[in-house]
Design goal:
The chain is mainly α. It has a single domain, classed as Growth Hormone, Chain: A. 86% of the residues lie in helices and 0% in strands. Helix 10 packs antiparallel against helix 13. It is globular.
Length: 323
Protein backbone atom coordinates (compact mmCIF):
# COMPACT_ATOMS: atom_id res chain seq x y z
CA UNK A 1 0.00 0.00 0.00
CA UNK A 2 2.87 2.37 0.80
CA UNK A 3 4.31 1.92 -2.69
CA UNK A 4 0.89 2.48 -4.25
CA UNK A 5 0.27 5.65 -2.28
CA UNK A 6 3.68 6.95 -3.32
CA UNK A 7 2.70 6.50 -6.96
CA UNK A 8 -0.70 8.09 -6.42
CA UNK A 9 0.80 11.14 -4.73
CA UNK A 10 3.30 11.60 -7.55
CA UNK A 11 1.01 11.02 -10.53
CA UNK A 12 -1.83 13.14 -9.18
CA UNK A 13 0.10 16.31 -10.06
CA UNK A 14 2.43 14.99 -12.80
CA UNK A 15 -0.60 14.12 -14.94
CA UNK A 16 -1.72 17.77 -14.67
CA UNK A 17 1.59 19.28 -15.83
CA UNK A 18 0.03 20.73 -19.02
CA UNK A 19 -2.53 22.60 -16.91
CA UNK A 20 0.16 23.74 -14.46
CA UNK A 21 2.29 25.00 -17.35
CA UNK A 22 -0.65 26.86 -18.88
CA UNK A 23 -1.80 28.28 -15.55
CA UNK A 24 1.63 29.68 -14.78
CA UNK A 25 2.08 30.95 -18.35
CA UNK A 26 5.45 29.23 -18.79
CA UNK A 27 7.27 28.21 -21.94
CA UNK A 28 8.59 24.65 -22.27
CA UNK A 29 12.08 25.86 -21.38
CA UNK A 30 10.98 27.64 -18.21
CA UNK A 31 8.82 24.69 -17.25
CA UNK A 32 11.90 22.50 -17.50
CA UNK A 33 13.78 24.85 -15.19
CA UNK A 34 10.89 24.76 -12.74
CA UNK A 35 10.91 20.95 -12.69
CA UNK A 36 14.60 21.05 -11.77
CA UNK A 37 13.44 22.12 -8.31
CA UNK A 38 11.93 18.66 -7.86
CA UNK A 39 15.18 17.03 -8.98
CA UNK A 40 17.16 19.27 -6.64
CA UNK A 41 15.07 18.19 -3.67
CA UNK A 42 15.51 14.55 -4.63
CA UNK A 43 19.28 14.83 -4.96
CA UNK A 44 19.62 16.71 -1.67
CA UNK A 45 17.68 14.08 0.28
CA UNK A 46 19.10 10.93 -1.31
CA UNK A 47 22.47 10.83 0.49
CA UNK A 48 20.77 11.75 3.77
CA UNK A 49 17.93 9.22 3.57
CA UNK A 50 20.09 6.20 4.40
CA UNK A 51 21.33 7.84 7.60
CA UNK A 52 17.76 8.77 8.51
CA UNK A 53 16.58 5.17 8.06
CA UNK A 54 19.51 3.94 10.16
CA UNK A 55 18.62 6.36 12.95
CA UNK A 56 14.82 6.16 13.17
CA UNK A 57 13.87 3.09 11.11
CA UNK A 58 11.97 2.73 7.81
CA UNK A 59 8.49 3.35 9.22
CA UNK A 60 9.29 6.69 10.81
CA UNK A 61 11.42 7.71 7.82
CA UNK A 62 8.51 6.99 5.47
CA UNK A 63 6.30 9.05 7.78
CA UNK A 64 8.71 11.97 7.50
CA UNK A 65 8.70 11.62 3.72
CA UNK A 66 4.91 11.52 3.60
CA UNK A 67 4.71 14.70 5.66
CA UNK A 68 7.11 16.50 3.32
CA UNK A 69 5.30 15.29 0.18
CA UNK A 70 1.96 16.41 1.59
CA UNK A 71 3.31 19.84 2.49
CA UNK A 72 4.97 20.18 -0.92
CA UNK A 73 1.85 19.15 -2.81
CA UNK A 74 -0.26 21.67 -0.91
CA UNK A 75 2.33 24.35 -1.70
CA UNK A 76 2.11 23.43 -5.39
CA UNK A 77 -1.69 23.69 -5.23
CA UNK A 78 -1.49 27.08 -3.51
CA UNK A 79 1.11 28.36 -5.97
CA UNK A 80 -0.87 27.26 -9.02
CA UNK A 81 -4.03 28.84 -7.59
CA UNK A 82 -2.22 32.16 -7.15
CA UNK A 83 -0.15 31.70 -10.34
CA UNK A 84 3.03 32.42 -8.34
CA UNK A 85 5.99 30.48 -9.75
CA UNK A 86 8.29 30.74 -6.67
CA UNK A 87 5.63 29.12 -4.48
CA UNK A 88 5.29 26.24 -6.94
CA UNK A 89 9.09 25.95 -7.05
CA UNK A 90 9.22 25.72 -3.26
CA UNK A 91 6.51 23.05 -3.34
CA UNK A 92 8.44 21.02 -5.89
CA UNK A 93 11.62 21.27 -3.81
CA UNK A 94 9.86 20.09 -0.64
CA UNK A 95 8.08 17.32 -2.58
CA UNK A 96 11.43 16.16 -3.96
CA UNK A 97 12.88 15.98 -0.46
CA UNK A 98 9.91 13.95 0.72
CA UNK A 99 9.72 11.66 -2.30
CA UNK A 100 13.39 10.74 -2.02
CA UNK A 101 13.11 9.95 1.69
CA UNK A 102 9.89 8.01 1.13
CA UNK A 103 11.42 6.02 -1.76
CA UNK A 104 14.59 4.95 0.03
CA UNK A 105 12.76 4.02 3.23
CA UNK A 106 10.04 1.91 1.63
CA UNK A 107 12.60 0.13 -0.58
CA UNK A 108 14.66 -0.81 2.47
CA UNK A 109 11.51 -2.25 4.04
CA UNK A 110 10.56 -4.00 0.79
CA UNK A 111 13.99 -5.61 0.51
CA UNK A 112 13.71 -6.82 4.11
CA UNK A 113 10.36 -8.47 3.35
CA UNK A 114 11.83 -9.98 0.17
CA UNK A 115 14.73 -11.52 2.11
CA UNK A 116 12.54 -12.91 4.86
CA UNK A 117 10.17 -14.58 2.40
CA UNK A 118 13.05 -15.59 0.06
CA UNK A 119 11.07 -14.60 -3.03
CA UNK A 120 11.53 -12.04 -5.83
CA UNK A 121 9.00 -9.44 -4.72
CA UNK A 122 10.56 -6.05 -5.44
CA UNK A 123 9.12 -5.77 -8.99
CA UNK A 124 5.66 -6.40 -7.56
CA UNK A 125 6.14 -3.78 -4.88
CA UNK A 126 7.04 -1.33 -7.62
CA UNK A 127 4.03 -2.57 -9.59
CA UNK A 128 1.96 -1.32 -6.68
CA UNK A 129 3.66 2.05 -7.16
CA UNK A 130 2.68 1.92 -10.82
CA UNK A 131 -0.91 1.01 -9.95
CA UNK A 132 -1.03 4.02 -7.69
CA UNK A 133 0.38 6.11 -10.51
CA UNK A 134 -2.30 4.76 -12.88
CA UNK A 135 -4.93 5.79 -10.35
CA UNK A 136 -3.33 9.21 -10.05
CA UNK A 137 -3.18 9.59 -13.83
CA UNK A 138 -6.85 8.61 -14.13
CA UNK A 139 -7.78 11.11 -11.44
CA UNK A 140 -5.80 13.74 -13.32
CA UNK A 141 -7.39 12.87 -16.66
CA UNK A 142 -10.90 12.85 -15.18
CA UNK A 143 -10.25 16.15 -13.42
CA UNK A 144 -8.93 17.69 -16.63
CA UNK A 145 -11.90 16.41 -18.63
CA UNK A 146 -14.31 17.69 -15.98
CA UNK A 147 -12.68 21.09 -15.73
CA UNK A 148 -11.59 20.63 -12.10
CA UNK A 149 -8.81 23.12 -11.25
CA UNK A 150 -5.39 21.67 -10.44
CA UNK A 151 -5.33 23.42 -7.08
CA UNK A 152 -8.65 21.88 -6.01
CA UNK A 153 -7.62 18.39 -7.10
CA UNK A 154 -4.30 18.49 -5.25
CA UNK A 155 -5.80 20.05 -2.13
CA UNK A 156 -8.19 17.08 -1.92
CA UNK A 157 -5.83 14.22 -2.80
CA UNK A 158 -2.80 15.21 -0.68
CA UNK A 159 -4.45 14.90 2.77
CA UNK A 160 -6.22 11.66 1.79
CA UNK A 161 -2.92 10.09 0.72
CA UNK A 162 -1.22 11.24 3.92
CA UNK A 163 -3.86 9.79 6.25
CA UNK A 164 -3.95 6.46 4.40
CA UNK A 165 -0.14 6.21 4.41
CA UNK A 166 0.05 6.79 8.16
CA UNK A 167 -2.41 3.93 8.70
CA UNK A 168 -0.38 1.66 6.38
CA UNK A 169 2.83 2.26 8.37
CA UNK A 170 1.44 0.15 11.21
CA UNK A 171 2.11 -2.99 9.16
CA UNK A 172 5.85 -2.31 8.70
CA UNK A 173 8.32 -4.85 10.07
CA UNK A 174 10.41 -3.71 13.05
CA UNK A 175 14.03 -2.80 12.28
CA UNK A 176 16.58 -5.15 13.83
CA UNK A 177 19.25 -3.90 16.24
CA UNK A 178 22.13 -4.23 13.77
CA UNK A 179 20.39 -2.13 11.14
CA UNK A 180 19.35 0.43 13.74
CA UNK A 181 22.88 0.91 15.12
CA UNK A 182 23.73 4.56 14.42
CA UNK A 183 27.50 4.29 14.87
CA UNK A 184 27.71 1.25 12.62
CA UNK A 185 25.31 2.93 10.23
CA UNK A 186 27.71 5.83 9.69
CA UNK A 187 30.52 3.41 8.91
CA UNK A 188 28.32 1.52 6.46
CA UNK A 189 27.33 4.74 4.69
CA UNK A 190 30.98 5.56 4.02
CA UNK A 191 31.74 1.97 3.00
CA UNK A 192 28.76 1.91 0.62
CA UNK A 193 30.01 4.96 -1.28
CA UNK A 194 33.48 3.38 -1.57
CA UNK A 195 32.20 0.03 -2.82
CA UNK A 196 32.58 -0.30 -6.63
CA UNK A 197 29.67 -2.73 -7.01
CA UNK A 198 27.34 -0.38 -5.17
CA UNK A 199 28.41 2.55 -7.35
CA UNK A 200 27.84 0.51 -10.53
CA UNK A 201 24.39 -0.52 -9.32
CA UNK A 202 23.79 3.16 -8.61
CA UNK A 203 24.70 4.08 -12.20
CA UNK A 204 22.26 1.42 -13.47
CA UNK A 205 19.47 2.68 -11.22
CA UNK A 206 20.20 6.27 -12.25
CA UNK A 207 19.94 5.38 -15.94
CA UNK A 208 16.60 3.63 -15.53
CA UNK A 209 15.32 6.31 -13.15
CA UNK A 210 16.12 8.97 -15.74
CA UNK A 211 14.37 6.88 -18.40
CA UNK A 212 11.28 6.71 -16.22
CA UNK A 213 11.60 10.28 -14.96
CA UNK A 214 11.72 11.83 -18.42
CA UNK A 215 8.40 10.17 -19.20
CA UNK A 216 6.94 11.26 -15.86
CA UNK A 217 7.89 14.89 -16.44
CA UNK A 218 7.49 15.29 -20.19
CA UNK A 219 5.28 12.59 -21.72
CA UNK A 220 1.96 14.39 -21.18
CA UNK A 221 3.50 17.67 -22.36
CA UNK A 222 5.05 15.97 -25.41
CA UNK A 223 1.63 14.76 -26.52
CA UNK A 224 -0.21 18.04 -25.90
CA UNK A 225 2.51 20.23 -27.42
CA UNK A 226 4.10 17.91 -30.00
CA UNK A 227 0.99 16.21 -31.39
CA UNK A 228 -1.36 19.10 -30.54
CA UNK A 229 -3.65 16.85 -28.49
CA UNK A 230 -6.03 17.91 -25.72
CA UNK A 231 -4.94 17.80 -22.08
CA UNK A 232 -6.91 14.67 -21.24
CA UNK A 233 -5.24 12.79 -24.11
CA UNK A 234 -1.87 13.79 -22.68
CA UNK A 235 -2.93 12.38 -19.30
CA UNK A 236 -4.28 9.26 -21.05
CA UNK A 237 -0.94 8.67 -22.80
CA UNK A 238 0.87 9.00 -19.49
CA UNK A 239 -1.61 6.51 -18.04
CA UNK A 240 -0.79 4.05 -20.86
CA UNK A 241 2.91 4.39 -20.02
CA UNK A 242 2.27 3.65 -16.35
CA UNK A 243 -0.14 0.79 -17.11
CA UNK A 244 2.47 -0.93 -19.31
CA UNK A 245 5.03 -0.45 -16.56
CA UNK A 246 2.64 -1.95 -14.03
CA UNK A 247 1.90 -5.03 -16.13
CA UNK A 248 5.59 -5.70 -16.70
CA UNK A 249 6.42 -5.28 -13.02
CA UNK A 250 3.73 -7.76 -12.01
CA UNK A 251 5.15 -10.35 -14.41
CA UNK A 252 8.81 -9.38 -14.17
CA UNK A 253 9.62 -11.86 -11.41
CA UNK A 254 9.11 -14.77 -13.82
CA UNK A 255 11.49 -13.28 -16.40
CA UNK A 256 14.10 -12.52 -13.75
CA UNK A 257 14.04 -16.03 -12.31
CA UNK A 258 14.17 -17.63 -15.77
CA UNK A 259 16.73 -15.43 -17.56
CA UNK A 260 18.55 -13.61 -14.77
CA UNK A 261 18.97 -9.94 -13.92
CA UNK A 262 21.55 -9.02 -16.57
CA UNK A 263 19.77 -10.47 -19.62
CA UNK A 264 16.40 -9.04 -18.62
CA UNK A 265 17.76 -5.55 -17.98
CA UNK A 266 19.60 -5.50 -21.32
CA UNK A 267 16.41 -6.43 -23.18
CA UNK A 268 14.19 -3.97 -21.32
CA UNK A 269 16.68 -1.14 -21.87
CA UNK A 270 16.47 -1.71 -25.63
CA UNK A 271 12.66 -1.74 -25.52
CA UNK A 272 12.59 1.50 -23.52
CA UNK A 273 14.88 3.21 -26.02
CA UNK A 274 12.68 2.12 -28.94
CA UNK A 275 9.56 3.41 -27.19
CA UNK A 276 11.09 6.78 -26.35
CA UNK A 277 12.23 7.27 -29.95
CA UNK A 278 8.76 6.34 -31.20
CA UNK A 279 7.14 8.94 -28.93
CA UNK A 280 9.65 11.59 -30.03
CA UNK A 281 8.86 10.96 -33.71
CA UNK A 282 5.12 10.32 -33.29
CA UNK A 283 2.92 12.04 -35.92
CA UNK A 284 -0.32 11.20 -34.08
CA UNK A 285 -1.73 10.26 -30.69
CA UNK A 286 -2.10 6.49 -31.43
CA UNK A 287 1.58 6.26 -32.38
CA UNK A 288 2.53 8.20 -29.24
CA UNK A 289 0.45 5.84 -27.10
CA UNK A 290 2.13 2.81 -28.70
CA UNK A 291 5.53 4.33 -28.00
CA UNK A 292 4.49 5.09 -24.42
CA UNK A 293 3.53 1.44 -23.90
CA UNK A 294 6.95 0.24 -25.10
CA UNK A 295 8.65 2.94 -23.07
CA UNK A 296 6.81 1.93 -19.90
CA UNK A 297 7.45 -1.79 -20.34
CA UNK A 298 11.13 -1.18 -21.01
CA UNK A 299 11.66 1.16 -18.07
CA UNK A 300 9.78 -1.05 -15.62
CA UNK A 301 12.36 -3.36 -14.06
CA UNK A 302 15.60 -1.38 -13.82
CA UNK A 303 14.75 0.55 -10.66
CA UNK A 304 13.23 -2.30 -8.57
CA UNK A 305 15.93 -4.79 -9.60
CA UNK A 306 18.61 -2.24 -8.76
CA UNK A 307 17.04 -1.64 -5.35
CA UNK A 308 16.90 -5.37 -4.71
CA UNK A 309 20.55 -5.81 -5.72
CA UNK A 310 21.67 -2.90 -3.56
CA UNK A 311 19.88 -4.35 -0.55
CA UNK A 312 21.25 -7.91 -0.85
CA UNK A 313 23.18 -7.43 2.42
CA UNK A 314 20.63 -6.59 5.15
CA UNK A 315 23.20 -4.98 7.46
CA UNK A 316 24.04 -2.29 4.89
CA UNK A 317 20.75 -2.15 2.97
CA UNK A 318 19.80 1.39 3.96
CA UNK A 319 23.27 2.74 3.19
CA UNK A 320 23.53 1.06 -0.20
CA UNK A 321 19.98 1.92 -1.28
CA UNK A 322 20.64 5.59 -0.49
CA UNK A 323 23.66 5.57 -2.84
Amino acid sequence: MTFGLNGLAFASWVSRLPAIKAGLGLTAGRMGLLLLCLSAGTLIALPLSGALVQRIGPARAVGAGVAAVTAGTLLIAFGVHLAVVPVVAAGLLVSGLGMSTWDVSMNVQGADVERQLQRTLMPRFHAAFSLGAVAGALVGAASAAGGVPVSAQLALTAPLVAVTAIVALRSFLPMDVEQHDVYGGRHRLVAAWRDLRTRLVGVLVLAFALTEGVANDWLALAVTDGVRATEWLGSFTFGAFVLAMTAMRFNGGWFLQRFGRVAVLRATAAVAMAGALLVAAAPSVPVAVAGAVLWGAGASLGFPVGMSAAADDPSSAAARVSV
